[in-house]
Write a structure and sequence with these properties.
The complex is a heterodimer of chains A (223) and B (472). Chain A has 223 residues and is of the alpha/beta class. Chain A has six helices and twelve strands. The longest helix of chain A is centred in the N-terminal third of the chain and has 14 residues. Chain B has three domains: 122 residues, no CATH class; 237 residues, 3-Layer(aba) Sandwich (Rossmann fold); 69 residues, no CATH class. Classes of the chains: A alpha/beta (223), B alpha/beta (472).
């Protein structure tokens, strides 16, 4: 018997299951197809406007910063201004995200934009969140050519861009958005739920930002 | 690691008199406990979500073989490999084989309690691989050659000066006069040292907080982002997960994630919650080429349907540990293996045997705080009591205790005799404590009175009062 067969048999024995699994299998299939939702916190069910405010409150509570801009074409200036205000290098990397790659980066003066997955020498990465859940200020970033995962983690500064209309209430709403795009039962290699900059409290429970991932997370909301 | 739980009495006695450890343990009380209370009160639905999470795990365990098979199918659909390991030796062998097949030299690791359970680092190092822990707490104990002392804060027993001394010892090549006098500087140094490891690694190994059958996904929860660099940069990502980590759907994962960080660190959500499904896809510019999941049994299937079935709901938040007066007095190392505190007192005997770990279920005041804060409603005191009962049934209780309990049982079944014996006992105790109202040293029970006084009997006995009609 293989290890697989031994383990599955031991589980059936432990559960006292004998004979056919037909009825149990139907229960399992139904659950996987219907994926019923549990309780969604009431705070995740308000109006779009209140969700945007909650999203900002939660993120700021987790030491991220936010910027609100009206138009997509203003993103380059917002990025350049953020980096300038913090005295950071005027250089950032993006993937070939449909929104980010089409922006007029050349308008933002000295800002240099390069493309591709992160290099260890990169100082800032810019990615676009496909969707975000307001209930805990959580961005959902999906891997792929548009937004390489390494851009979210390797550079010291992570700038995330999200359309205001992509801010939903709870995690359930966010997963349903991803199901619409990627199909049920199917996800990209990575979905990164990010709720702030990297941190650790492993030394005497003292909170220190920038443990291994970005020291700062700046979120630009468009719309 | 090899269990040392049999030595609990000695290691616990030593821990109580370790001033550095006691200072470090004070951080548990002021940190985790207060933050959890705040996070819970900020979410009105918290208790409801805990009930639902319990039901999700009960449902999943009742159909575990089917969910594991559904999960396996989905991982394969997404281009990943699933390996099954009945015990630690099989799991270590599978992982070493994957590393060898990749011609790997260096391996980075995210924090994994399963990795500790199967002593994975020792095995890989013996096979010639270089292994680097990347979670800061795990890194700290790796360079000290120690075991974790807490399941979510592995280095919680250390103080800053100890860590500074370790960094000066291990990080050779850096200026000897550099300033490391606060946590920020220590973290910055660890970040720089480990950054090189992330970039150079051939294989990255992570654990899993959850496995999702609907999508074939493994989930890790971190604050540092080390797990993400570990699994994104190398060519190969290996996930090591025990079988009870399974949940059916993304919605079920939501429910558990809503209570996990709140119960553990008191955060509403951990900074990074990462869902990984298979290797990188065609056209992806980064991510691993190979994705392997090792499903570990190591004693879990034997717990299914047993008295300890409920323990398989545990999501390793550590709330029971943080709230345990015994853990807070002796720290994690006294427990002698991977899992300390109340959850360890139940789990360790299940996984390494009651012969080795018999002291642990006895190391409890049965105050019940662990059960009260457990988000998965695991009746931890009851499960510890099951182990104590087995200890008696199997004749493992020391002769003196066994004799005393037998004598008490004999008397308790004979009311007249009980009354006579207890009045002799009460009279003797009153005599001993007549001057101060308490007894400083009790003959035949000196190990009890060495650490505290026994109050002398006051007034009349309950039975006397009952007889006299004071039934209020």
């Amino acid at each position: 018997m293989t290890a697989r067969e031994r383990m599955l048999a031991a589980i059936r024995t432990g559960l006292g299951v004998t004979g056919s699994d037909k009825i149990r299998a139907a229960t399992v299939s139904a659950r996987l197809e219907q994926h019923p939702s549990g309780t969604v916190p009431a705070r995740a069910k308000g109006s779009a406007k209140s969700q945007a405010a909650l999203f900002a409150d939660m993120l700021e509570g987790q030491a991220a910063t936010l910027d609100w801009i009206a138009r997509e074409e203003d993103v380059p200036d917002a990025v350049a201004g953020y980096l300038r205000d913090l005295n950071l290098a005027a250089r950032a990397r993006i993937g070939d995200d449909e929104m980010l790659s089409g922006l007029p980066w050349e308008q933002a003066g000295a800002l240099e934009i390069v493309s591709g997955p992160a290099e260890p020498s990169d100082t800032a990465g810019i990615t676009r969140a496909e969707v975000a859940a307001a209930e805990t200020g959580t961005l959902f970033l999906t891997s792929g050519p548009g937004n390489p995962t390494s851009l979210n983690f390797l550079p010291e500064t992570h700038i995330a861009v999200i359309r205001k209309s992509d801010i939903v209430g709870g995690y359930e709403d966010a997963w349903n958005r991803l199901r619409e795009r990627h199909g049920q039962g199917s996800l990209p290699r990575n979905v990164n739920l990010i709720s702030g900059p990297s941190r650790t409290a492993d030394i005497e429970q003292t909170m220190v930002m920038g443990a291994h991932g970005p020291r700062r997370l700046h979120v630009i909301v468009v719309g | 690691m090899k269990p040392q739980s049999h030595a609990f009495k000695e290691t616990a006695a030593h821990a109580i008199h370790d001033p550095g450890l006691q200072k470090a343990l004070a951080n548990v009380r002021s940190g985790f406990v207060a933050k959890r209370a705040r996070a819970r009160s900020a979410l009105p639905e918290f208790d409801q979500l805990c009930d639902e999470a319990r039901d999700i795990k009960n449902h999943t365990l009742a159909h575990l073989n089917l969910y594991l098979e559904a999960y396996e199918t989905k991982v394969r659909e997404h281009g990943g490999h699933v390996h099954w390991a009945t015990d630690a030796a099989e799991a270590c062998g599978i992982i070493a084989d994957i590393c060898r097949n990749q011609d790997a030299r260096t391996v980075t690791k995210g924090k994994s309690m399963i990795g500790e359970e199967i002593a994975l680092n020792d095995h890989l190092e013996r096979q010639g691989f270089e292994v680097f822990e990347t979670d800061l707490g795990e890194y700290l104990i790796q360079i000290r050659g120690e075991a974790p002392s807490h399941i979510i804060g592995p280095a919680i027993h250390l103080t800053r000066p100890q860590i500074e001394a370790d960094f000066r010892r291990v990080h050779t090549g850096l200026p000897a006069d550099r300033n490391l006098d606060d946590a920020t500087k220590l973290v910055a140094e660890a970040r720089a040292v480990l950054r090189e490891r992330f970039v150079a690694a051939d294989v990255g190994i992570t654990g899993a907080n959850l496995l999702i059958a609907e999508t074939g996904t493994s989930v890790i929860v971190t604050n540092e982002g080390n797990g993400d660099l570990t699994q994104t940069l190398p060519r190969t990502h290996i996930v090591i997960a025990s079988i009870e980590k399974m949940v059916p759907t993304l919605e079920d994962a939501n429910t558990i994630l809503r209570i996990l960080a709140r119960s553990a660190t008191g955060q509403d959500m951990s900074t990074y919650t990462t869902f990984s499904t298979g290797p990188k896809r065609a056209g992806d510019p980064d991510g691993p080429d190979h994705y392997h999941v090792v499903l570990l049994d190591n004693g879990r299937s034997a717990m299914l349907g047993s008295q300890f079935h409920d323990m398989l709901r545990c999501i390793r938040c550590g709330a029971c540990i943080n709230h345990c007066p015994v853990y807070n007095a002796v720290g994690g190392h006294a427990y002698g293996w991977v899992y300390p505190g109340p959850m360890g007192a139940v789990l360790t005997p299940s996984l390494v045997g009651i012969e080795e770990a018999g002291h642990l279920p006895n190391a409890s005041s049965f105050c019940g705080h662990c059960e009260a804060v457990c988000p998965m409603s695991i009746p931890l005191p009851k499960l510890m009591r099951h182990w104590r009962e087995r200890e008696v049934d199997e004749g493992r209780m020391p002769l003196v205790q066994r004799t005393l309990f037998k004598a008490w049982a004999f008397l308790a079944k004979r009311p007249a005799l009980y009354r006579a014996a207890s009045s002799i006992g009460i009279a003797s105790l009153s005599l001993l404590g007549r001057r101060q109202g308490r007894i400083r040293a009790l003959p035949f029970a000196s190990s009890w009175t060495r650490h505290r006084d026994l109050p002398a009997p006051q007034g009349r006995t309950f039975r006397d009062q009952w007889r006299a009609g004071r039934r209020t």
